[in-house]
Structure formats: C-alpha cells, structure tokens
C-alpha cells in the first residue's frame, strides 16, 4: 500500500481543523464515499483527471492524514495505490502533493492572527476563510487564511484558450474538457474571473470541435 502519510502535532482547536478540512475538500471537489470497504474522500477519475483519495483524523491535538492516487491503465482499470512518487503522471501527482503541503501549512497557521488581503480583521463571531465561509464562534472574531485555488483558475484559462486555438482538431475537445475541470476547482478563488473566462472558451471550443467533427463525418459519407 503506497500512501503519502502525515502525522503531526498541531494543538489547534478542533473546530478550526474541521473548518480547514471542509474548506480544502470542498474546493478540490472531494466527496465522502465508500471505497473497498473504507469510507474515504475521493475526487477526480476518468480519462482527464486521475482519482485522488484522502483520509484524515484529528485527536488530542495530533493530525493524521493519508493520501494517494490511482493511475488509469485502461477504461475502468486502475493501478494500485500510489503515494505520488514515480515518473508516470508526474505533473498531476506533484500538483496534488503541493495542494496537501499548502493544506499542512494552513493548518499550522496561528489561529486568530491571520488577516484578509486588506490586512483588516473580519467582523462577526466566526472563523472565516478567503471565500467568506463562516463557522459560528462564541469568543469573538477569529480570522484565518483559507485554501487558495487560484492556480487552477489560471490553468483553466490557459487550457480554454489552447482548446479554442485548436478547436479545428480533436485537441480542442481534450483541452476544453481539461479547462472545465480546472475551472470548477478555481471558481472559488480570488481569480474566479479567469476560471469563468476559461470555461467560456472551453465551451466554445467544445461546440466548434463537435460541430466540425460531425461535418467531417457527413462530408466523408457524401
């Protein structure tokens, strides 16, 4: 079993850790599912995004996390658990590992000392991240830095533009789908405008590519 494992002493409030994990999992599209008899968080799957898995727990100030991916071999056929090492699929593995490292850094942040981009504390009795999510607190305002998915918004825009440029080939379909996948991840970031623009380019690319594909089939049949 190859898993990326972190076991660290945080000594943070349990509601803070729960909030940060919910923030991370929701922004990265994880869902709580049963997999091989175990309840795990899973995101991705299929041809364009390898399935990612994560389990975590927090007890007595100690945070435990196990994360892994499975590589696609054939449709519906995946490799064994992988701890994000090895050459095959190196880029998505690195991206997932970087996301986890960002999460660990955020979990270690001083609770209540982080500021918004403006440097001003947020009003209200809440733990609040960069997207404006709130969790009730009874001891006054607590400000924390949330998970940032801006790079996915940038990737969505890049893939969308590429798909639009190559819409006269099947690459337009490939890059268009990639753009939509990453636009969904980046829509909650500070650069959500780029994610939206990328998705618009991707949809246009998908429509043009599909129409041209069927026109070519029709022309060949005549």
What does this structure look like?
The chain has 222 residues and is an alpha+beta fold. The protein is 42% helix and 21% strand. It has helices spanning 14-27, 90-107, 150-165, 171-186, 192-221, and strands spanning 4-9, 31-35, 38-43, 52-59, 62-69, 72-74, 77-78, 126-128, 134-136, 142-143. Strands 1-5-4-3-2 form a 5-stranded antiparallel beta sheet, covered by helices on one side. The longest helix has 30 residues, at 192-221. The radius of gyration is 20 Å and the shape is globular. The chain starts with a strand and ends with a helix. Residues 113-136 have low confidence and may be disordered.
Provide the descriptors you would attach to this structure in a database record:
222 residues, alpha+beta, 5-stranded antiparallel beta sheet, 3-stranded mixed beta sheet, 5 helices, 10 strands
Characterize the biggest β-sheet. 5 strands, antiparallel
Percentage beta strand: 15-25%
- Strand arrangement in the largest pleated sheet: 1-5-4-3-2
**Number of DSSP strand runs:** 10
Average pLDDT taken over every residue: 81
């Amino acid at each position: 079993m190859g898993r990326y494992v972190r076991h660290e002493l945080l000594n943070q409030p349990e509601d803070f850790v729960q909030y940060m994990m919910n923030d991370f999992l929701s922004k990265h599209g994880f869902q709580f599912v049963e997999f091989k008899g175990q309840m795990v968080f899973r995101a991705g799957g299929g041809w364009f995004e390898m399935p990612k898995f994560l389990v975590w727990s927090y007890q007595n100030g100690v945070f435990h996390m196990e994360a892994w991916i499975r590589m696609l071999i054939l449709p519906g056929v995946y490799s064994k658990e992988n701890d994000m090492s090895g050459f095959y699929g190196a880029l998505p593995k690195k991206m997932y590992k970087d996301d986890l490292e960002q999460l660990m850094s955020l979990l270690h942040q001083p609770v209540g000392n982080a500021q918004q981009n403006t440097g001003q504390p947020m009003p209200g009795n809440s733990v609040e991240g960069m997207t404006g999510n709130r969790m009730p607190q009874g001891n006054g305002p607590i400000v924390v830095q949330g998970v940032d998915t801006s790079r996915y918004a940038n990737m969505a825009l890049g893939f969308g533009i590429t798909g639009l440029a190559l819409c006269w080939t099947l690459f337009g379909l490939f890059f268009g789908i990639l753009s939509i996948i990453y636009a969904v991840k980046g829509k909650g970031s500070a650069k959500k405008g780029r994610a939206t623009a990328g998705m618009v380019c991707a949809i246009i690319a998908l429509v043009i590519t599909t129409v041209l594909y069927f026109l070519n089939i029709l022309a060949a049949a005549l």
